[in-house]
Amino acid sequence: MSNRIKMSELDPAQDMVNRIKNNVPNLAVYKLRDLPSSKLPDAYVTVGVNGSINRLTTLGDLYATTLLIAVNVRLLTTGGINDIKEKKIIEQIEDLFNGDGYSKRVNFVYEGKNLVANYSTKMFNIITRITNN
Question: Domain extents for the chain?
């Protein structure tokens, strides 16, 4: 019996969204492509594939990709970044990126704020492996 993964079944971003939702139920988490355009909560996380999904074996039973995780927190009334809330969210989710197909290697790629959207954003990449085993 083959452990081959069908391309139509690959959805590592949704897998990570589910993983976060199951472990941090009070945190709003969206696949990047499913992010609502209005009525966003004060804090939320988005997950998307950052680059290609690469097949690593000829059997098609092991793939690798990079997931882009973004932590978004509404700015304080002063326009400042809510560092305490940002840090708390990262602490709640960071252990979910170790083991079970996810790399301990986390690369921060962006940190800043958007005054028009009224949110601060911290983005980082997570290396992930996808397998049926």
Answer: 7-131
pTM: 0.89
pLDDT for 32-90, tens place per residue?
Answer: 999 998 999 999 999 999 999 888 888 888 888 999 999 999 999 999 999 999 999 99
* CATH class of the domain comprising 7-131: alpha beta
Burial of 10 (C-beta count, 10 Å sphere; 0-12/13-18/19+): middle
Q: Rounded to the nearest 5°, which phi and psi values hold at 72? A: -120, 125
Distances from the Cα of 37 to the Cαs of 7, 34, 74, 77, 98, in angstroms? Answer: 29, 9, 15, 22, 31
Tokens of 9: 């079944």
CA atoms within 13 A on the CB side of 110: 11
Nearest 10 degrees: Cα torsion 31, 68, 15, 7: 100
